[in-house]
Design goal:
Helix content is 42%, strand content 22%. The chain is α/β, with parallel strands linked by helices. The N and C termini lie far apart (59 Å).
Length: 377
Amino acid sequence: MPNTDKPVVVYGASGYTGRLICEYLREYNVPFVAAGRSAGTIKTSMESHVPGIETADYEIVEVTHDVESLTSLFAGASVVCNTVGPFAKLGPEVVEACLAAGTHYIDTTGEQDWLITCDEKYGADFAAAGLLLSPGIAQMYTTGEIAAELCLEKPGLDTLDIAVFWGGSPTIASTLTILVNAALSGAFYLEQNRYVPWDPDAGLYQLAIPGQHELALALPWGGTSHPVWYRKDPRVANVKVLGGVFNKPLMMGVPQIVAAAVEATKDLPPDEQYAALTATASQVMNQMPPRENPRLNKSLDSVHASGPLGRAHCVIHGNSNYKQTGLLQAYAAYSLLQRPPRQAGFASACQAFGHRELLGVLSGFGLVREPVVTVEG
């Protein structure tokens, strides 16, 4: 049945990020549908893991993952928050259902191949319908984009060097996405407005990050979303992004895990590849991380922006990166219920809602500190 009194659908509501989105939608007093494959799992997740859920205006809907069923679910809603990945594999049905139902689409991914698909395959249709198509609204991408935009307030800077770090462990879904992305797609940075592949055999990179003497270890993480968002931005020609967790032993193990998974599945047919990668991911991470502790789960986004005659550097210190993601998703949905996005079609969070507005939201909920911005030249 078409939904008319719950304007937001959280698809994948029982997952770690999905239930945080529900938590913040409750704080914004936004009625929502918590949707997924199993109504029982969603009910247990809501009641056990979403503080204050008894005061939320929501309903639980079980749905199969196909365009027809999802279109029926989304009909009458205004916004879909999608957390069901890997998105390159599972995202098309959700996007196509949003377009058919006339709803805005946002998700949490940084899968570069999925963002390129959204841009090139679906962006024009969403723009023509006046709908937002915004993948990648999440701490790992949006908070760094906010830092980049603060740097770009100084004209004449065309190169972005972005570092994103966080404390904690990947979720079950994130682990699978990392392995699938590494095995089945490439990773690109932006050089003179063209996608250039990262060296897949380069291994770990060492970065000097603000606030500590010890070098940190980083990876391209599939290239992330920033090169895609900035490819058509006339201010920017070059974008490189590296990121990682503060836990060095964990970072040192990632390349070995990924390399072993890629080697073991490289000769399998696509469906068997995905099944094998899913099995490997469940061995690496088979339980939800604990709720974030702001004393332990810190985040850091650092952007060096440069141009022929100037430089700027922005650092944003924060905490609880998954909470940042949940809040950004909930605020995006809340904003879309009030007014149209600044840019329809394929657009980043900052392009759709404004970087200073998003910074104010994160600051207002105590998840980031005031940015440290240094401008030279």
